[in-house]
Give the backbone structure.
Amino acid sequence: MHTPIRVGITHGDFNGIGYEVIIKALDEEGILDLFTPVIFGSPEILNQIRKDLGTETFRFAPMRKVSDVQSGRINVVDVCPRGLELTPGHPSQEAGEAAVAALEAACDALEAGEIDLIVTAPINKKTVYSETFPFPGHTEYFARKFAADDSKATMILFDDEIRVALVTTHKALRDVPACITKDAVKNTIMNMDSALKQDFRMDKPRIAVLSLNPHNGDNGLLGDEEIKEIEPAIAECVADGILAFGPFAADGFFGTNDYLKYDGIVAMYHDQGLAPFKALAREYGVNYTAGLKYVRTSPDHGTGYNIAGKNEADPTSMRQAIYQGIDLARNRQRYKELTANPLHIQKQDTRRKSDE
């Protein structure tokens, strides 16, 4: 009997819109035939928010252990203490601690093979930060947890038309130039190429690389990172067989729709890549951490404190994060199977061509 794929979902900051978009994304007829949701969080808080939303059709099964999860129902693994205070729109330390508890429990379940991938609802970076969780965001946490080394984990934002990877993620703008090194740019290009082939099932992906400075630095007049770091990184990737192009000035690249000519884009810093991406992808954007042992996605938005508790949150990005995460996990599995015996693949391809 076929066992539906198990999707672990962390509740994020419960004072934000995490639970609202989770409820709305899962409250669809027939969804349990496609996958088994396993939410890590607080059944008590979830029930409060469900009632506030007036979602009578949403039903879930609370449990203490992941081993109790069953297909055909929405499972909620209780990882939080009782009596948490729900204050929609207002960050709190206990909400931050609950977010970390859900994240760590989901990662333990992932390593144990109890779930197949993980989708994370948004967190508040300030309330989760502590001596025991010294990370500026999910990406950095997953890089330390599940990447062979930190340089392999790459933030990729994507929808059906555009995929953007970042050389630097959560860095102050003043610190970015020092991080734009040949090795950092080359690693990001290589990681993007690997992700496009392995997780997005692209044979020969074309990757565009953006410049750091306006007008590509104007031959060094506005900065020399393009000449000293970015261009050599691209050249080395091309020598390794990667189809990398650039660097391109970011304004013209997006303004003239050149992004549609490429399978992936490498941006130098957070807002350079994410501002145009979010304007183009809107609610369909998904955040993906490539280069991990497991698949992790998240919706492309924050905690949404300004609309928390108002029943105004759009679940599209969360729904996309779930479905795209499932697709990525299946693509990766197929890639592993196809590359496990390359001689077998070659014979299959030869036979197919002879039949044409």
Observations:
- The chain has a mean pLDDT of 91.
